[in-house]
Amino acid sequence: MASQKRVGVVLSGCGFLDGAEIQEAVCTLLSLDRRGTALVAAAPDIEQRHVVDHLLGAPAEGESRRVLTEAARIVRGKITDLAHVSASGLDALVFPGGFGVAKNLCSFAIDGRKMKVLPEVERLVREMRAARKPMGFVCIAPVLAAKLLGGEQVKVTIGDDAETAAAIESWGARHVECRVEEIVVDERLKVVSTPAYMLGPWIAPVAAGIDKLVSALLELAS
């Protein structure tokens, strides 16, 4: 009988405008749980870049929240500080999307092609790559793979957004256009990506793409 796979899920807060995209996160967790994996949810213990009122779609002035505390909402409190997670304790790793990826895990939303990646995120991605363990990147999260693994010409997708695709290719990565229900697999580097809410339009097709990503990820981990 195959041993249970331990899969890390890195969250960037709670709410698509300033944290993790909740539907993408839940679809990822559900797909992994249905396949019998041991879930290791994690988030960095840092301040969010800002807080957005999701009803108004505008910044909530004077509010501040922590990424780890907010991300804990999605996983019923069962979450670990990203600083305490290493590749040695994982078989695979997934990054759901949301603006939190581009604001909290890196600075893509602010700095574009000149973005910097949060040191703990960079450390873990590079550890996983060095150990040749598979990673999945959902929605906007492939910019992390592109920035960190562009030197190896990693192949990823964010759907068909020309500006983001151009940024990805500026780092040496290869962008592949993709429909929301589909995935792109870089078997050489063991990286899987899917557009999710970079394309939308709603939860069913997003869930279909994420489920395919999880299936491919676990196959690469076997």
TrEMBL record:
The keyword Transmembrane helix does not apply. InterPro entries: Class_I_gatase-like, ElbB. Keywords: Glutamine amidotransferase. CDD domains: GATase1_ES1. The keyword Acetylation does not apply. NCBIfam families: PRK11780.1 (NF008747). PANTHER family: ES1 PROTEIN HOMOLOG, MITOCHONDRIAL, GLYOXALASE ELBB. This is Glutamine amidotransferase. The lineage of its organism: Bacteria, Pseudomonadati, Myxococcota, Myxococcia, Myxococcales.
